[in-house]
């Protein structure tokens, strides 16, 4: 995949991101903390707010839950989280310091000057401001060249966008470094060519927000109607293609120029002139607050957050299958993030294992909301998905990985036997242990056992026969000696007690004291087919 | 589910939608044609454009492909599509006439007067206008009460929103009827309380578009950056929650009022004053066209449409799992649409079958892009998904349907045996035939065979043992006589030739002339475990 190319090792002299500091730990600051920690980066926090630890903890809990559903890729061990008494202590060791204090320029300038004085001179300093100019913020810093705006969107742990905006004093390589350092966190640093109040995203949001306030104030619609208009139509277009690419399609084969020709005159129509700033007086605030209460009756903010995060996870996963499986937009970014996680996990495994063989390691898999049926149980075919992941895990361990498949051969599953022994529910973690039961030069016979991590209860077993196939001819072919020797090494060891119950079994037809036979035709005498 | 309540039978006197007429068959008109046809509604088209049939045909092909991936629910037989030489012939029989001619008020008025004169007096007349006022359009009609704006969004066959806007002369029940009649097409009619130029959606779009043009003109960013800013951030928020619900979450426990208090002052900041209308001169058109070409290098409009439709299908499916499986936003609408399809198919089945039993009918399933792995083949667990759907189909046929499950009992799969005999690829249609192999009062033993529809090649088989379970106790329990008699009736008939190959089989361990035994430990002598 091209994806992996974007994560090649940087030149050694450029900054690395192993330790971050977050100054300010509200919803945005806490979101940064979660992004960094879940990417394996240590985070030092400074926030004088008495409840800072609780708030950060809540955002982090949401983020952990979302990541558990977002990806099956091997997340690194979480970075170390520490809270500090002083700003100076928090920033002292950091490679990247992210400022997320309230949006008041005097406060931000004061905090940034403190950071600048206490940080290593080569550390990067980003500000989460959603509207203040970087040139105004960097005035008076001793090292302004390493300062920039890094403006994220809520929820920071799921939405990838970070607008990267440099000021007059920002060194060009700072912007490049910021984009590069964010990559392993799954974020997308988007450099903005010129600084402007509110940058690009909030300018667009503000324009639409202003128009929305007029529509509510003038009684054209209520907030629920307005939200429905967005989410049943262009909201879904914008989740994947944005504005200009969507309009390119609308222009059709005639092209963008033709489309603009059509659209242009509309900009002069009377309805484009409603551009005054709406007066957000008490009456309008009351109306919006009341309509918002009605729209969200029975839905707490906590529940809305869960629903939003589930939806975002689902949209990200859907976009990961986009463009014929290559991934599209934020889904492509997720695929690249996962490729990076897998590559780093494989490298770490190699370092730890050396030439030693430690046998097949168990897989841990979390039951995702998308896997649940109307009974609240894990849907049947998701068991085979987990078993398939376990089979892939064994194939990687014997060297039949993606690179091997690309080189022209692969193991294909030809037969599977599943037994359902218990129920998996939302949020359960399943442990999958795997064993090579038998093999020859073409065949590989696997057995997987799924147990619930919290109580060890057996949930399902899978027995699978795989065939080694030459992909060009499509026929079975002997596996090479390198693979077979790893198979032989891993196939050692006795089966655990009771495991033979699940192996080599056929489905037995219905029979017993309460047997009713197969009818040979309507009204036929009970008899037996098998 | 609440979903089905929304489709209860209307009072008999209200209009029905069985025959539609589409006047104008471009991208929007063709999208309406596709929505109606795929919902089983006959459509008569009038469009004097010489290529109208080709253009409608292309939109329809896209829509059919998208629906094939969107849902496994039983789509009704497509409505009958006819093209007519005169407007009068097209509208004569129609229950709903949708006008989608170019956006020029004189032209629309002339066409609407013609429609009004030729249509049945009780037929509804909707206009696809994206900005003209319904009061202006209905002036001079003989029956203005049945006229309204029904403004859809491209692609009309996937995006559910229709803004329903009445004018001064529109009867209130017309708006209600329009919303109700659109329901079985999967669309969401959203009534707008007061008419206003450009209604709600295009007013919001226009505000953002105007701001976007300034950002490009002033060189703040290029079109790709602007699209990235949207799709990596608030685009994904808006696909599911819109504007106000998103901000409600941003306000946190402090609520909407608190949020507005914070946001309000920003409306007076300098950056909100950039509200002039941009001059879309040649230079700006050239810049946007060139940047758009660069953004979409190598992607034809046709390819972009496919990518967009795949993404929208994926987003809709993701949202269908939202809110703990109840469905959220456009995904909830999709769940309701599917529930309606299933209910109507079941009703139609009952009508056709009467008391006769025609045996188990084969299922037809289309391989979706989301089911394809990096080899271009259908992913392993998707076979079990198709087999699970086939099992559900059998359970419905024996009366163990969703209502039965709700009443307290269900069949659970306890064991499955899959054989992979061929490969399924993107776009293949699979035919699944099912057979009851054996049963007793608690057990149900099924065999499914998957063949490729185009050449009859066998792709996979599934053998499954199900147990009848009392849901309260979680224990096996005898099925009631009503179910067992249907099982007995459907279990009649001999197995087709060769089928026994796939039944009652166990996975055989690797063995043969080229056998390599299981190693008992590293370097152990070859020997045999089983």
From TrEMBL, chains A, B:
Pathway: Amine and polyamine metabolism; carnitine metabolism. It catalyses: carnitine + NAD(+) = 3-dehydrocarnitine + NADH + H(+). Keywords: Cytoplasm, NAD, Oxidoreductase. The keyword Ribonucleoprotein does not apply. HAMAP family: L_carnitine_dehydrog. Residues 492-530 are annotated as: Disordered. NAD(+) binds at residues 24-29. It comes from Jiella endophytica. One of its GO terms (biological process) is carnitine metabolic process. Residues 199-266 form the 3-hydroxyacyl-CoA dehydrogenase C-terminal domain. GO terms for molecular function: carnitine 3-dehydrogenase activity; NAD+ binding. This is L-carnitine dehydrogenase. Residues 20-192 form the 3-hydroxyacyl-CoA dehydrogenase NAD binding domain. CDD domains: 4HBT. GO terms for cellular component: cytoplasm. It is found in: Cytoplasm.
């Amino acid at each position: 995949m091209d994806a992996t190319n974007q994560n090649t090792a940087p030149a050694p002299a450029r900054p690395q991101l192993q330790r971050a500091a977050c100054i300010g730990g509200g919803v945005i600051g806490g979101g940064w903390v979660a992004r960094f920690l879940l990417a394996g980066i240590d985070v030092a926090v400074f926030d004088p707010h008495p409840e800072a630890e609780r708030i950060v903890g809540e955002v982090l809990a949401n983020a952990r839950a979302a990541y558990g559903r977002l990806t099956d890729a091997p997340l690194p061990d979480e970075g170390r989280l520490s809270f500090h008494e002083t700003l100076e202590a928090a920033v002292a060791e950091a490679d990247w310091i992210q400022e997320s204090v309230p949006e008041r320029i005097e406060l931000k300038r004061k905090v940034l000057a403190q950071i600048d004085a206490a940080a290593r001179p080569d550390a990067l300093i980003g500000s989460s401001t959603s509207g203040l100019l970087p040139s105004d913020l960097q005035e008076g810093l001793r090292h302004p060249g390493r300062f920039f705006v890094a403006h994220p969107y809520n929820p920071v742990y799921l939405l990838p966008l970070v607008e990267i905006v440099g000021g007059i004093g920002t060194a060009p390589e700072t912007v490049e470094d910021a984009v590069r350092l964010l990559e392993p966190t799954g974020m997308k640093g988007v450099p903005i060519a010129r600084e402007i109040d509110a940058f690009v995203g909030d300018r667009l949001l503000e324009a639409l927000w202003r128009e929305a306030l007029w529509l509510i104030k003038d009684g054209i619609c209520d907030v629920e109607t307005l939200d429905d208009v967005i989410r049943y139509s262009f909201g879904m277009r914008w989740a994947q293609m944005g504005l200009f690419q969507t309009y390119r399609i609308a222009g059709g084969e005639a092209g963008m120029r033709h489309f603009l020709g059509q659209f242009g005159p509309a900009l002069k129509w009377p309805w484009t002139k409603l551009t005054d700033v709406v007066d957000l007086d008490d009456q309008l605030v009351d109306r919006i607050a009341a309509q918002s209460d009605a729209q969200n009756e029975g839905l707490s903010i906590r529940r809305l957050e869960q629903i939003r995060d589930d939806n975002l996870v689902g949209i990200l996963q859907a976009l990961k299958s986009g463009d014929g499986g290559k991934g599209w937009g934020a889904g492509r970014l997720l695929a690249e993030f996962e490729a990076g996680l897998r590559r780093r996990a494989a490298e770490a495994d190699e370092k730890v294992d050396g030439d030693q063989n430690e046998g097949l390691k168990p897989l841990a898999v979390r039951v995702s909301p998308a896997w649940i049926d109307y009974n609240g149980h894990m849907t049947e075919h998701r068991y085979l998905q987990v078993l398939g992941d376990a089979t892939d895990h064994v194939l990687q361990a014997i060297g039949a990985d993606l690179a091997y498949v690309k080189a022209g051969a692969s193991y294909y599953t030809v037969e599977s036997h599943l037994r359902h022994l218990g129920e998996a529910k939302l949020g359960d973690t399943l442990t999958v242990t795997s064993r090579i039961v038998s093999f020859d030069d073409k065949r590989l016979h696997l057995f997987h056992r799924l147990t619930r991590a919290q109580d060890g209860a057996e949930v399902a077993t899978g027995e699978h026969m795989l065939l080694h196939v030459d992909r060009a001819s499509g026929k079975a072919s002997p596996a090479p000696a390198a693979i077979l020797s790893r198979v032989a090494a891993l196939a050692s060891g006795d089966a655990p007690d009771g495991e033979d119950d699940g192996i080599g079994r056929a489905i037995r037809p219905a029979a017993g004291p309460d047997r009713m036979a197969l009818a040979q035709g309507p009204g036929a005498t009970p008899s037996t087919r098998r």
